[in-house]
Amino acid sequence: MLRTIKAALLIATLATLGVSCQKDEKLGSQGNPIKLYFTPSVDADTIASNSTEFLMFLEKETGYFFKSGIPTNYIAVVEAFGSERADIAVMNSFGYLMANEKYGAEAKLKVLRYGHDYYQGQIIAHVDSGINSVADLEGKKFAFTDPSSTSGYMFPLKILKDNEVKLGNQTFAIKHDNVVTMIYQKQVDAGATYYSAASETGEIRDARARVKTQFPDVEDKVKIITTTEKIPNDPFVFRKGLDKEVTTKFIAAVKKFIATKEGKDIFTNIYSVEGLVDTNDQEYDGLRGMIKALNLKTADLLKK
C-alpha cells in the first residue's frame, strides 16, 4: 500500500514538473510550441488533413514550433484561451465575443469569402415539408447547429422571434453539414446553417454544398426559406498577453501562405476562405448589439 502511494506521488510530481518545465521553456520552442486551435465548424478530419502543410509553412517562415488542436465544439475553443491551452485560434464570431469578454482575447485578422468580409445565416427546409415561409415553421421539427453559432443559431433565432414563431422539437446538430443531412433525410423539417450567395455560374456555396458529393440532388430536396442580415466573418484570435513578436510573425506568415495557390486551396478546403484582412475588436460591436437585443446569456449557452 505504501509503495502504491509513493508511486502515485512520484507520478504526480513528475507530471507537475513536466508542466512546469514546459512553461519555463520559451513559447515557440520545441518543448513549448505555439498552440493553434481550429474551430470545428466542419469535419475534424477535413481540418486535420488540410492543416498539416499550413503548420509546416508557419514553422519555416517564423522559426517557431506549432501544435494544432481541434476541440469538439466552439465553447471548448473559448475555454482553451482561459486555460492558456490556446495561443491563437480561428473562431466563429460569437465564440470570439465570449473569448474577448471572459479572457481578453483579441481579433486581429478577419477572413474573406467570395470577396466579402461578412456572411449570413439561412433557414432551410425539405421541399416535402410544406414550409414556404417563416410562419410555416410554427410547430415544426427544427435543427440548429451549435448554440454559439451566429449563422446556425442566433441570427435565425432572431428571425423566429421577430415573427413570433414557436418551433416544435428542436435539436443542436453541431455542424452545418449535419443540419443539411438531417433535413435531406427528413429527420427534421427545417434548420439553420450558414449562407453564401451562389456563384456567377449558379453553383451553390451555402451549407448545402458541403454534402453535395454525398447527396448530388440536395438542391432539389432542400430549399432556402429566408436569409439573415449580415454577420462579420470569422476572426483569427490571439490570446491576451501573447508576445507581440509572435503575433507579428504569425500574421505575416499566414498572409503570405494564403496568398499562394496552395495556401488558398487549403483554406478553401477547411473554411471556404480565400483571403484575409486586418480587423479589430470594434468591428464586432454590431454583433454585440444584436446579442444584447436577443437577451442571450453566455451562461445559458454554455449549458446547451
Structure description:
The chain is α/β, with parallel strands linked by helices and about 300 residues long. The chain has 2 domains: about 35-115 and about 235-280, Periplasmic binding protein-like II (D-Maltodextrin-Binding Protein, domain 2, 3-Layer(aba) Sandwich), CATH 3.40.190; about 120-230, Periplasmic binding protein-like II (D-Maltodextrin-Binding Protein, domain 2), CATH 3.40.190. Helices cover about 45% and strands about 20% of the residues. It contains 11 helices and 12 strands. It has helices at about 1-25, 45-60, 75-80, 95-105, 150-160, 175-185, 220, 245-260, 260-270, 285-295, 300-304, and strands at about 35-40, 65-70, 90, 105-110, 120-125, 140-145, 170, 190-195, 220-225, 230, 235-240, 275-280. It has a 6-stranded mixed beta sheet, sandwiched between helices. Helix 5 links the parallel strand 6 (about 140-145) and strand 7. Helix 2 (about 45-60) crosses helix 8 (about 245-260), helix 2 (about 45-60) runs antiparallel to helix 9 (about 260-270) and helix 3 (about 75-80) runs parallel beside helix 4. The chain is globular. The chain starts with a helix and ends with a helix. The relative contact order is 0.17.
Shape type: globular
- Could you say what the CATH topology of the largest domain is called? D-Maltodextrin-Binding Protein, domain 2
What is the CATH architecture annotation of the largest domain?
Answer: 3-Layer(aba) Sandwich
Question: What is the helix content?
Answer: 40-55%
**Span between N and C termini?**
43 Å
Content-based structural category: alpha/beta
Average pLDDT reading: 87
Query: DSSP helix count?
Result: 11
Give, in spatial order, the strands making up the sheet with the most strands: 2-1-3-11-4-12
Low-confidence stretches: 1-21
Q: Any idea what the radius of gyration is? A: 21 Å
